[in-house]
């Protein structure tokens, strides 16, 4: 908060306290009117002799209000509430949050310390660990990969056997711990412009059994071998070490239609998986990874959620 806004807040707080104190003092005075030594009336009379008086509030009631004002002043001295003044207690909502989080993290660390450093395929054998991993997945992963983990355009399906960066326990754990950065460069200038892009797109479609023009496929094969094979391999089967996907199967991250493939070759692709180690820590990352492992290795995990479970 800037100094100007801080002074503005302090002014409003002090103004409200002073105005409230004055209002209580003013209403506590005994008001008199001509012809009535005790109190003035409001002018309302019912049934001929039932008069409404305008008398001060009871002293005990007024004094309670004064006590609340005194309490408010003490509160504003002890706790923050006067602009940038932090209060003499040193309390802050951020500090309390951090303390509560540290306590909760300590309890969680104690509860799951037995999984520290354990391989995720071994953790996946524990139903309780997988259930907790499913909760972690729902909180941190479902917004991209979906509640059923089947992904969407640009976000991989985690329930099948296709893994862009490798599907071993260590590969999956590394992906979630450290994140991944995929980079498909724009290749149109390198393969001959629009014509070359069309030829390569047709050849890529043919690799997975999609029908394409034979002439385009033949021309695209040569261009693919000279440029694209550096990452995807001469046979188009990909390279998990580089995150280059297998182009010969039916798993397509951005779509297998001609226009989607052509767009990828022309403009490139940039996929980013954030690192979760600094977000949820190593052990909880292992639990989330164990859940992900169980989705496509349910028979090997021997326990845990079935493949595709939300």
TrEMBL record:
Spell out the family assignment given in the record's similarity comment.
Belongs to the CcoP / FixP family.
Which pathway? Energy metabolism; oxidative phosphorylation
**Protein role:** C-type cytochrome. Part of the cbb3-type cytochrome c oxidase complex.
Q: Which cellular component appears as one GO term in the record?
A: plasma membrane
Residues given in the record as heme c 1 binding sites: 141, 144-145, 273
- Name any one Pfam family assigned in the record: FixP_N
Please list the residues that bind heme c 2.
184, 228, 231-232
Please verify whether the record's keywords include Amino-acid biosynthesis: no
Q: According to its UniProt record, where is this protein located?
A: Cell inner membrane
Is Electron transport one of the keywords UniProt gives this record? yes
Give the matching InterPro entries. Answer: CcoP_N (IPR032858), CcoP_N_sf (IPR038414), Cyt_c-like_dom (IPR009056), Cyt_c-like_dom_sf (IPR036909), Cyt_c_oxidase_cbb3_su3 (IPR004678), Cytochrome_c_Oxidase_Subunit (IPR050597)
Can you name this protein?
A: Cbb3-type cytochrome c oxidase subunit
Free-text comment on the cofactor: Binds 2 heme C groups per subunit.
Subunit-level organization: Component of the cbb3-type cytochrome c oxidase.
TM region positions: 6-27, 60-79
């Amino acid at each position: 908060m800037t100094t100007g806004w801080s002074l503005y807040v302090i002014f409003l707080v002090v103004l409200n306290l002073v105005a409230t104190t004055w209002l209580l003092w003013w209403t506590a005075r005994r008001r008199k009117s001509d012809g009535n030594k005790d109190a003035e009336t409001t002018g309302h009379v019912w049934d001929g002799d039932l008069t409404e008086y305008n008398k001060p509030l009871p002293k005990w009631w007024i004094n309670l209000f004064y006590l609340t004002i005194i309490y408010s002043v003490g509160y504003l001295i002890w706790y923050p509430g006067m602009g940038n003044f932090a209060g003499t207690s040193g309390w802050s909502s951020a500090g309390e949050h951090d303390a509560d989080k540290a306590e909760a993290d300590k309890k969680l660390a104690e509860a799951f310390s037995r999984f520290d450093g354990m391989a995720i395929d071994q953790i996946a054998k524990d139903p309780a660990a997988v259930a907790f991993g499913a909760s972690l997945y729902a909180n941190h992963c479902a917004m991209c990969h979906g509640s059923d983990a089947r992904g969407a355009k640009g976000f991989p399906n985690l329930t099948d056997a296709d893994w862009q960066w490798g599907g071993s326990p260590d590969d999956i754990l590394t992906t979630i711990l450290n994140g991944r950065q995929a980079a498909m460069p724009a290749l149109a200038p390198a393969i001959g412009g629009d014509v070359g892009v069309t030829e390569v797109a047709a050849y890529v479609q043919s690799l997975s059994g999609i029908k394409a023009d034979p002439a385009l496929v033949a021309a695209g094969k040569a261009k693919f071998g000279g440029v694209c094979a550096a990452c995807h391999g001469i046979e188009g089967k990909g390279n998990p070490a580089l995150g280059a996907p297998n182009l010969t199967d039916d798993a397509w991250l951005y779509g297998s239609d001609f226009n989607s493939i052509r767009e990828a070759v022309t403009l490139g692709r940039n996929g980013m998986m954030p690192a979760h180690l600094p977000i949820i820590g190593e052990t909880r990352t292992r639990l989330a990874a164990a859940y992900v492992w169980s989705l496509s290795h349910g028979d090997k995990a021997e326990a845990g959620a079935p493949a595709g479970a939300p």
